[in-house]
Design a protein that fits this description.
Layout (H helix, E strand, L loop, with lengths): L1 E2 L5 H9 L3 E4 L9 H12 L7 E6 L1 H4 L4 E2 L4 E3 L16 E6 L1 H12 L1 E3 L17 E9 L7 E6 L1 H4 L8 E3 L12 H9 L6 H16 L5 E4 L4 H11 L8 H10 L7 H13 L9 H11 L14 H9 L1 H17 L15
Parallel strand pairs: 2-6, 3-11, 5-7
Antiparallel strand pairs: 1-11, 2-4, 3-6, 8-9, 8-10
Helix pairs in contact: 1-4
């Protein structure tokens, strides 16, 4: 792992749009709120550090082995999910291991939208999720004492409301200006009667500067193609929220290879089923995955990520019903012998 030359926000956005930057299956989905994104941009404008990132350079050969996902552009609180990336496998990609929430926030703010539920409205009412964009007030600082800049997610209709202290600039529109031609921003200020307002001029030029010119995306690059190592790195650097165990990550990367069934749901439901036999057992998803490796007669049955590649997972998917029946029958058999969660001291012993 090595520290790389920092890049600009604009560079990162371009790489996301071209699908050079993608997300691995081990990543959780986007969860940041509007307020978190607004505060992120306030920090950027004030020159505060926004933390380092961890990227994984995935070789052309490795790209074909694993499933990757695109970044969310238009977030909808009720139904947003990352789409599987369709890749030709003829070039390497950069997979974001740490910093997904921040980079997705930048992408949504500059290229997309955010639709969160309006309080007290029904979830099944489309009007409960108005599409909003990130705006910056060019005439006044934020009222919040913790913030300097007034960033807000607004509908296009609300953003049209103006007075002596309010002029909302859509943040994504900054991408329409050529950073090498400052006259474009000056022309915009003149056209909107803001040229004589020092705060407006300083704020808009600063926004352009932090997006296009300042290399504030500091990142480390992991180039090892051994996914077990990458997973362990991921576990160590992801300290926010509830940490995922190695097993959770392994299940995520393994089951992402299935294309005909919802593998996660299948495995979790099946674990609940066999644990309810007799007086109950304490099997877990690891036990089921390990059993899959053995029953499919793979040469290498070690419990590691490399053994849950696309080829092996395809075999497991094709034989999933038979695997379930074998495990179910075995659990029912040992139940007749009087075993349960207390007396079966080694789950792996029955594999």
């Amino acid at each position: 792992m090595s520290f790389q030359t920092p890049i600009t926000i604009y560079d990162a956005i371009k790489n996301i749009s071209s699908k050079k930057y993608l997300l691995p299956a081990i990543q959780r989905e986007f969860v940041w709120s509007e307020e978190q994104i607004e505060r992120l941009f306030d920090s950027i404008m004030r020159g505060y550090p926004i933390g380092s990132f961890l990227f994984w350079k995935v070789s052309k050969e490795s790209v074909k082995k694993y499933q990757f996902y695109e970044f969310i552009c238009h977030y909808h609180q009720g139904k947003s999910h990352n789409q599987k990336a369709v890749l030709m496998g003829d070039e390497e990609i950069i997979s974001v291991l740490d910093g997904q929430q921040r980079i997705t926030s930048l992408y949504i703010a500059l290229k997309g939208s955010y639709a969160s539920k309006v309080p007290y409205m029904r979830w099944n009412d489309p009007a409960a999720f108005p599409k909003k964009y990130l705006y910056l007030n060019l005439l006044k600082e934020a009222d919040d004492e913790d913030l300097n800049y007034d960033f807000r997610f607004l509908t296009e209709e609300d953003a049209k409301k103006r007075d002596e202290n309010t002029f909302w600039f859509k943040v994504g529109d900054i991408l329409n200006f050529d950073p090498q031609d400052p006259s474009q921003i000056n022309d915009y200020l003149i056209e909107n009667q803001l040229a004589t307002n020092k705060f407006a001029s300083k704020t808009l030029f600063r926004l352009s500067d932090v997006i296009f010119k300042r290399p504030i995306i500091n990142y480390y690059l992991e180039e090892d193609q051994e996914l077990d190592k990458v997973l362990n790195v991921f576990i160590r650097v992801n300290s926010g929220g509830t940490q995922l165990s190695y097993s959770d990550l392994l299940l995520s990367i393994a089951t992402a290879q299935w294309d005909e069934k919802d593998a996660r749901e299948e495995i979790i439901n099946f674990v609940d089923e066999i644990n309810s036999v007799g007086r109950g057992f304490s099997f877990n998803k690891d036990f089921v995955l390990k059993t899959c490796l053995v029953l499919c007669d793979f040469n290498d049955i070690r419990f590691k990520v490399d053994n849950f590649n696309k080829q092996n997972m395809s075999v497991i998917q094709d034989n999933w019903d038979k695997i379930k029946e074998s495990i179910r029958t075995t659990v029912e058999l040992i139940n007749t012998f009087g075993f349960d969660y207390q007396t079966l001291t080694s789950n792996n012993a029955i594999i």
